[in-house]
Amino acid sequence: MDFFGELYLRSTLPFLSEAVTAREAEYLARAFADTPDTGFIADLGCGHGRHASRLNVSGPLAHRIIGLEKDALSLSMRRRGFPVVRGDLRALPFGEGTLSGAYAWYSTLFAFSDEEHVTILRELARVMKRGGLLVFHTVPFERLAASPRAAFRRTLPDGGVLEEESQFDASTGRDEARRTLTLKDGRVLSASYAIRYYPLAELAGLLESTGFSITWVHGGLEGEPLTQLSADLIVGAVLRDG
Ligand SMILES: C[S@@+](CC[C@H](N)C(=O)[O-])C[C@H]1O[C@@H](n2cnc3c(N)ncnc32)[C@H](O)[C@@H]1O
Q: Is the pTM of this model over 0.70?
């Protein structure tokens, strides 16, 4: 089965606190506050719309957000208050130079092959306006390298049992994981997934080669500098002029 969809939603939504989502949305509102109001800002892989629904309703980005999501179940569960288009990050359903910005949370841009990451960034360069801002969140490579093996087992509030094992390979930068959710009625949802974590210098090179230049790097939602201890890596990059 696919990792995204029922398995992801059932195993992730119980852990997403509204307080953290609110802080993430505030970070994004600040990041895009000065973006010219001439085109939509896309929430890439918006899921059920926890960021888009907040940002599009009030504040500096009101009426400027459009969600992009591939998974039908996530879309059917989406929160109110923002427009959405069903589509694939690898073939974006937007016209050339139409978006004034885009953002992606939770390593959404890096759950593919290295070749596909180039395709996605090139697609973003195609659909964004020159000078447009791309903001994305992931986890620092060093964090995975420091504890490459992880395993957990947890009982969810609905009685389901969630198990996951993952192994990070620093030589490929890929964290390979298997997640299994045994529902209370005995049904088992299980899928493998992999996320690519790039050392910052490699990430900068990837962005440069696809038309973007890094403007800032933060290690947390308050704009903290990235350090050895940072749990987050948040990058702001602009699409270069030519
Ligand atoms: C890690 S989740 C993040 C969801 C949401 N942005 C959040 O922070 O809660 C990644 C999202 O990207 C979507 N996704 C995965 N592959 C995609 C693709 N090829 N094109 C568009 N969306 C995709 C998944 O269905 C999922 O909703």
A: yes
Closest residue CA from atom 4 of ligand 1:
47
Q: Which of 111, 135, 122 is nearest to 61 (CA)?
A: 135
Q: How many residues does the chain have?
A: 242
Whose tokens are 């629904």? That residue is 53
Residues 171 and 230 occupy one common structural domain: no
Distance 4 CA to ligand 1 centre (A): 7
pLDDT tens profile 168-180: 999 999 999 999 9
- The mean per-residue pLDDT over the stretch 216-237 comes to 96
Task: Establish if 1 belongs to a structural domain.
Answer: no
User: Ligand 1: distance of its center to the CA of 137 in Å?
Assistant: 13
Domain count, the chain: 2
Distance 169 CA to ligand 1 centre (A): 23
Q: Is the CB of 79 under 6 A from ligand 1?
A: no
Distance CA 167, CA 177 (A): 6
Residue 183 sits in the same domain as residue 85: no
Nearest residue to 71 via CA among 137, 162, 1: 1
Q: How far is the CA of 239 from the centre of ligand 1 (A)?
A: 22
Q: What is the pLDDT of residue 1?
A: 86
Whose Cα sits closest to atom 20 in ligand 1?
A: 88
Distance 97 CA to ligand 1 centre (A): 23
Kindly indicate the confidence band of residue 228, based on its pLDDT and cuts at 50, 70 and 90.
confident
pLDDT tens digits along 34-59: 998 889 999 999 999 999 999 999 99
Look at residue 191 and give its three-state secondary structure: strand
- In DSSP terms, which residues pair with 161 in a beta bridge? 155, 182
Question: What rounded mean pLDDT belongs to the chain?
Answer: 97
- Which atom of ligand 1 is the closest one to the Cα of 107? 1
